[in-house]
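Lab meeting, action items carried over

1. Structure of the two-component assembly. Owner: GW. Status: complete.
Input record:
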Amino acid sequence: MAMFEDSVTRTELKSLGEFKLIDHITEDFTLNNKSSVYGVGDDCAVLSYPDKKVLVSTDLLVEGVHFDMVYTPLMHLGYKAAVVNFSDVYAMNGRPKQITVGIAVSNRFSVEAVKEIYAGIKQACKNYHVDMVGGDTTSSISGLFISITVIGEVDENNIVYRNGAQNNDLICVSGNLGAAYMGMLVLEREKETWKGNPNMQPDLAGNEYVLQRFLRPEARFDIVEILAAKDVIPTSMIDISDGLASELHHICKQSKKGCNIYEDKLPVDPATILAAEDFNINPITAAMNGGEDYELLFTIKQSDYEKIKSIPQISIIGHITDNEGILSLITKDNVTIDIKAQGWDSFTE
Amino acid sequence: MAMFEDSVTRTELKSLGEFKLIDHITEDFTLNNKSSVYGVGDDCAVLSYPDKKVLVSTDLLVEGVHFDMVYTPLMHLGYKAAVVNFSDVYAMNGRPKQITVGIAVSNRFSVEAVKEIYAGIKQACKNYHVDMVGGDTTSSISGLFISITVIGEVDENNIVYRNGAQNNDLICVSGNLGAAYMGMLVLEREKETWKGNPNMQPDLAGNEYVLQRFLRPEARFDIVEILAAKDVIPTSMIDISDGLASELHHICKQSKKGCNIYEDKLPVDPATILAAEDFNINPITAAMNGGEDYELLFTIKQSDYEKIKSIPQISIIGHITDNEGILSLITKDNVTIDIKAQGWDSFTE
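Predicted assembly:
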C-alpha cells in the first residue's frame, strides 16, 4: 500500500525469471558516451579513459532506512538513486559517464514495479548524459535495496578533493538549503494522516517545491560547468547529502582548518521558510542539519571572488580560518555558536 | 545462531555510528596498484587508466538468497563476495585492480561481525593484489546485503567477450566442476541435523575439498596468466557461476553457434565423485548444473591446440558447431542429449 498508488497490471517476478527480467529492463538502454565501449551483456562492461582520471563512487539505498515506500513513487526513487551518485562525481569537479545498478527486491514487488524503478534511472541517465553499462537484479527475502556505482571522468589538473581548503578561502554553496528536509517532514505528516484514513488523498498543495527537492532532487552539473567557464577551480568541494554542518566538518577536518559561517548569508528558499513556519521550526536548523539537498559546498581563493560574486546560483556563506576544528556560526544578532556535526547516521537514528 | 559460531565480544553497531565504523574498517586498507590514485575518504575514488581498457562489474549477494548465515562463516563470506567479482574480470581476460564495497546490515549483526566480513574482503584483496577504494556501510531493516563493484584492466587487443566463438573452436574448462554444488549439499544436510540438535558439532570430515570449493572459492587468475604466457587469446570466455550448461548457452547464444560436449572429457574431482555417491547423485549432473565453481569456460582456435593440450589445469571438453542453438552432450555410451540451461534463478527457486 502506498499514498500515491495507482492500479496497474501486476506480473509476478517469478513468472518472468531473472534473465528475461534483465532483457526487459535493458532492452532500450543505449550507449552514448565515447568512454562506453561495451555495456550490458557480458561478464564486465568495457570502458575507455585514455586522457582522463576515472572517478568511482558507490551508494546504497535501503528500504525503511533511506526511503519509505509509503510515500516514495518508484520512478522518483530510481531517478533519485541515480542522481545522488552523479552528485558525488560533480563534487570532485568531474562528469559522470556510466553507472552500474544492483537491485534486490522481494516478491512483494511486481515486474511492473521493478520496471518503474528502472524507468526513473533511465530518465536520470538521459538528463545527465550517463550510460547504464551493467548491474545485477536479484531477489531479496524482504525489502528493496538499490546499489549504484557511478563512474565519471575529470582532467587530472581539475580534481577537487575535500582536503584543499586554505586559510581565508571563501566558502560557497549552490542553490538553497533545507528544502529537502522540509519536504520529508510534509510527507511524514501526510503519512500519519493517511494511516488514520487510507481513503483520504494527501494534501500537498503549496508544498510542491520542497516535495520535489526531497523526492526528485537534481545534481548541480550546472555549477561544475559554470566554474569551468569562469576558469575557477575550487580549493575543496563536497556535496551536501548529510547537511551543511556535517559537510563543513568533513571539509575542515580533512583540510585541518576551521570556519566562520554567517547566518544571514545562508540561502533558504521562501517555500522552505513557509514550510518551516508551518512546522514551527527555525529554517536555519533545516538549512544547517537537514541534509539531502545535493547542493555543492566548495571553497575558493579570495582572488577568485570577482569571478564568482555575481553568479545567482552561488552564495558566499563564510570563510575558512586557521583555527583547526573550530567551526562557528555567527548569527544575525552577532552571537557565535559552535557548529555541531549532526549528520544523519543510519545506525543511530 | 550459526553452526560455526564462536563466543566473541559483541559491540553494538549503534554504539559506534556510521563514520566511526567506516574509520574502523578502512584504517588498514592501503593502495598498492599504480592505477589507484586516491582511495577511501572523499566523494569518489580516483583511478588512472591511460593505457588500458577499464572493466567494470557489479554483483549483489543477499542473505537467504545467495548465502545462508547458518553455515557461512563471515570471513569466508567476505572473501567469496570479493573473489566472485574478480572472477568476472578474469572472464574478460583482464586483471582486477580495485573494488568498492557496499554493505547493509541489520542490528542483529555486531561491529565484530561486520569487521569479520571486511577481514575476508581484505584477505581476498591481498591475495589477488586488488585495492579497496571506496564503498558504503549502512543499516538494513533485516538481513545482510553485500554489493561489490570491481574495476579491472585489460589491453584492448586482449579483451575476450562471450560472442566470439567460431565453428570448430575447441571448448576448454579450467580445474574441475561440480565440487561447490556438492559442498552446498553437505552443508544443507548438516544444517538439518544441527536444527534437530544445535549442540551437535557438524560432521564434515572427508568433505573438506568440496566444502572449501563452496565456502571459499578462488578465481582462476592462474589461467589468465598461463594463456598470456602461451600467447593464446581465447575466442570467447565466461566464468562458471550458474553451472556449465547455463554458461554454454550464454556463449552459444551470443556467438550464434551450437556445441558438442563429451561426458568423458568433463573434469570432476574424486572428492566430488565420492560426495555425489554419498548423495546418490550423478556427478555429471553436479558438473553440468551445479554452479558456483568459478572456473573459466573458454573457446580457442584449433590452431592453438598444441599450446594448450599439456596444461594440467585445462581440459578440452568439446567443440563449437555451426548448428545455432543446438547444444549436445555426448554420453560415454555415445547417446546425444540436449543440454538444457538449468542456471540458478533467484526469482524462481
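2. GW to write a short summary for the group page. Key points so far: The mean pLDDT of chain B is 92. The CA atoms of residues 106 and 143 of chain B lie 6 Å apart.
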